[in-house]
Design goal:
The protein is α+β, with helices and mostly antiparallel strands. Helix 7 packs parallel to helix 9. The longest helix has 29 residues. The protein is globular, with a radius of gyration of 27 Å. A hairpin with a 2-residue loop joins strand 21 and strand 22. It comes from Falco tinnunculus (Common kestrel). Exoglycosidase that cleaves the single beta-linked mannose residue from the non-reducing end of all N-linked glycoprotein oligosaccharides. Belongs to the glycosyl hydrolase 2 family. Keywords: Disulfide bond, Glycoprotein, Glycosidase, Hydrolase, Lysosome, Signal.
Length: 758
């Protein structure tokens, strides 16, 4: 059979980019966005530098156009159908080819395919005319006249844009309490031309099931096709998994238009199937699988994929001696304590997030013994590579849909767009064994239940109806149709089955007896574990700290280096955040008193990190030991996901990665500000190289609490950091993420311990 049933022409690369009145014209990379293009061409500084988030607001208020010409590399007459495919457009744009409007985009999370069979020529001119996301969102909100949909604007401290809930775009790109406002415009994912005859494979997915009655694994394989011919096409599909001595052939018929075929492959019973296990519980075995489609038209498609075998159940059942229901995950029949963190976008500009960025962050999480991350609902559905890496290293994913901390419209156009988004994302992602849960939104059940937006009691029903319409009647319905292999919850935090029973919005979504909780407390003493909720599942909790001085230094100038500078206030997007950190510090540490302002700033930063590490350690340990006990009807905690793993820019936040967490446990008998007998220490380190890692031998003359190693801008990971040094000598290993040397490391090294703070 001939296999050239389709041909692809990528449109990645350099495009022409211009603003509305033509005063700014430059080359811009695709995939990419306007901000990174301007920065690469030297037309703006680093957007993260000092106050640039506000200085560069003009970029997102303008309307930009991407355009280019391209030659068609194939004979147009030989193909029945030619499509222009955008894997991702950010966000509102009109798409034209040869001055013919193909259509419009309004959803960053959707895949757009335009039929260009009748308009494509030998040489083509393509244009993507963007509209400012900020003005589009404002306009959409103005058009929604019947009732308002809160919140209108973020709190002033966030220096953000309004009405993010009216545009299907990364919600935190309009600002968040840990991130800047950069409402980007651009073609943020792959764009290409695809030409084909007869039939074409659009989506291909596989999900595994264990059939208890037969004690046998089976795979459900779904293929979604576009059939060009006017009558049905018949043929054969062969699925082959050599390692499992499994091969099956099916005869299929494809109807004209877009449709799917679902095949059920039973795995050979005499083969020992190795299941996919989370990090720390076993191996992440995957099996090579080939699926071959041979259709009567004589065209053959061969699809290579990895098959993983794992089951997941979300268990919500009565617990002896405790009112309410459990909330825990069983993977391959084994209850597993979920330990990990929350993931936010790794950059305001997605085109800067490379495979290496993802690999280092995720690998650090696995090296810190995490087994799970929650992809939080105010960011983006992550790129394919993110989930590939999680499959490979055993990181379970709690996947939110992209709705966060707001109410949302439910008019016809909005719902249509969301339905397309949800089908696309579920089809794209459901083959990944790492994804163990779909969750409808972040905190929106709580927003209605606790009335965050001061909605008059009489109007509440309207918003509840909208809520159920969006998350239950649309999102949930699509998820259950598209994917029967994993659980779905409507929100986080939620009371799970109890919320369902109460009409999807419970009285108190933070109830410790049901579902999951989010918990933040900035006023009580974090060393006092009695303030923490003895919950079934802690899916968000945390404390702020400042990033290290070497991180801040890159985006600031000397006048910014004080805790009360304009810069320090500007970077803090959480109301009273800087004061809250000082108040928490004062409980257990002496505040820095140095007369050298820069030393005082560095000492304060260091203390916020020590404080965050201690608070997190105490709270996390509380959740870990609550796993096996019920006290006053509360307990059986089966998950701790702290807020947050990573940072989006250099600013105070809740992030604390491979972070100041030491494996050894020490209990301080008093607050360290009252500790007696802590002497000044002489801390020193010698660095040597062994193979591709570096060995730091630390020596101290006296006990040194919270020893922190910082090697400035050299990227890498210490085997241990932020520890109490009780011996004269300690060895720490540094794993570099980029080439470095003993000299560079010695030059960049700063050693700090609590007794250095004056």
């Amino acid at each position: 059979p001939r296999s050239s049933h389709s041909t692809v022409r990528s449109l990645r690369g350099s495009w022409r980019l211009g603003n509305a009145n033509g005063s700014v014209v430059l080359r811009g990379e695709v995939p990419g966005c306007v901000h990174t293009a301007l920065h690469r061409r030297g037309l703006i500084q680093d957007p993260y530098y000092r106050f640039n988030d506000v200085m560069y607001r003009w970029i997102s208020l303008d309307n930009w156009t991407y355009s280019r010409t391209f030659k068609t590399p194939f004979d147009i007459r030989k193909w029945q159908k030619v499509n222009l495919i955008f894997e991702g457009v950010d966000t509102v744009a009109q798409i034209l080819i040869n001055n013919v409007t193909l259509g419009r985009t309004d959803n960053m999370f959707n895949r757009y395919s335009f039929d260009i069979t009748s308009v494509i020529k030998e040489v083509n001119f393509i244009e993507v005319r963007f509209l400012s996301a900020v003005s589009y969102a404002a306009e959409q909100s103005r058009c929604h006249k019947v009732y308002s949909i809160p919140p209108a604007c973020p709190p002033p401290v966030q220096k953000g844009e309004c009405h993010a809930n009216f545009i299907r775009k990364e919600q935190c790109s309009f600002s968040w309490d840990w991130g800047p406002s950069f409402p980007t415009q651009g073609i943020w994912k792959d764009v290409r031309i695809e030409a084909y005859n007869h039939y074409h494979l659009i989506y291909f997915s596989l999900t595994s099931f264990f059939v208890k009655s037969a004690q046998q694994w089976s795979l459900e394989i779904e293929s979604i096709f576009d059939v060009v011919s006017s009558k049905p096409i018949a043929g054969l599909v062969t699925v082959n998994i050599p390692k499992l001595q499994t091969q099956q052939t099916f005869s299929v018929r494809l109807q004209p238009g877009e449709g799917s075929i679902v095949l059920l492959v039973n795995i050979n019973k005499s083969s020992a199937v190795e299941a996919w296990w989370p990090n720390g519980h076993g191996k992440q075995t995957g099996y090579n699988m080939t699926t071959t489609f041979i259709m009567e038209a004589g065209y053959q498609i061969e699809k290579f994929s990895k098959a993983y075998f794992r089951t997941v159940e979300l268990v919500q059942e009565p617990i002896p001696g405790s009112p309410g229901l459990s909330f825990y995950f069983r993977i391959n029949g084994r209850p597993i304590f979920i330990k990990g963190s929350n993931w936010i976008p790794a950059d305001s500009f997605q085109d800067r997030v490379t495979y290496d960025t993802l690999w280092l962050l995720l690998k650090s999480a696995a090296d810190a013994n995490m087994n799970a991350l929650r992809v939080w609902g105010g960011g983006v559905y992550e790129q394919d590579e993110f989930y590939d890496i999680c499959d490979e290293i055993g990181i379970m994913i709690w996947q939110d849909f992209m709705f966060a901390c707001a109410l949302y419209p439910t008019d016809k156009n909005y719902l249509e767009s969301v339905r397309a988004e949800v089908s696309h994302q579920v089809r794209r992602l459901k083959s990944h064994p790492s994804i163990i849960l779909w969750s409808g939104n972040n905190e929106n059940e709580a927003a209605i239940a606790s009335n965050w937006f001061s909605i008059p009691y009489a109007d509440k029903e309207v918003y509840i109806k909208d809520y159920v319409m969006l998350y239950v009647k649309n999102i949930r319905e699509i998820v259950l149709t598209e994917d029967k292999s994993r659980p779905f919850i409507a929100s986080s935090p939620t009371n799970g089955l109890e919320s369902v029973k109460e009409g999807w919005i419970s009285q108190n979504p933070y109830d410790t007896h049901y579902g999951d909780t989010h918990f933040y407390d900035y006023s009580n003493d974090c060393w006092n574990w009695t303030v923490y909720p003895k919950t079934r599942f802690a899916s968000e909790y945390g404390f702020q700290s400042w990033p290290s001085f070497s991180t801040i230094e890159k985006v600031s100038s000397a006048e910014d280096w004080s805790y009360t500078s304009n810069f320090s206030l500007h970077r803090q997007h959480h109301e009273n955040g800087n004061d809250q950190m000082l108040q928490q510090l004062e409980r257990h540490f002496k505040l820095p008193q140095s007369t050298d302002p820069i030393k005082k700033f560095k000492d304060t930063i260091y203390l916020t990190q020590v404080m965050q590490a201690q608070c997190m350690k105490i709270e996390t340990e509380f959740y870990r030991f609550s796993q096996s006990e019920i006290i006053k009807g509360e307990g059986h905690t089966m998950g701790a996901l702290y807020w947050q793993l990573n940072d989006i820019w250099q600013a105070p936040s809740w992030a604390s990665l491979g972070g100041l967490q030491s494996p050894t446990n020490h209990h301080f008998l008093s607050s360290l500000k009252d500790a007696v007998g802590l002497e000044k220490t002489q801390l020193s380190a010698s660095v040597s190289q062994r193979d591709d890692v570096y060995i730091f031998v630390l020596q101290t003359t006296a006990i040194a609490p919270f020893v922190s190693l910082d090697v400035g801008s050299i990227k890498g990971r210490f085997s241990d950091n932020g520890f109490l040094m009780t011996e004269k000598k300690k060895v720490v290993v540094f794993y570099p993420w980029e080439p470095t040397s003993v000299e560079e490391l010695e030059k960049s090294l700063t050693l700090t311990s609590l007794v250095d703070v004056v």
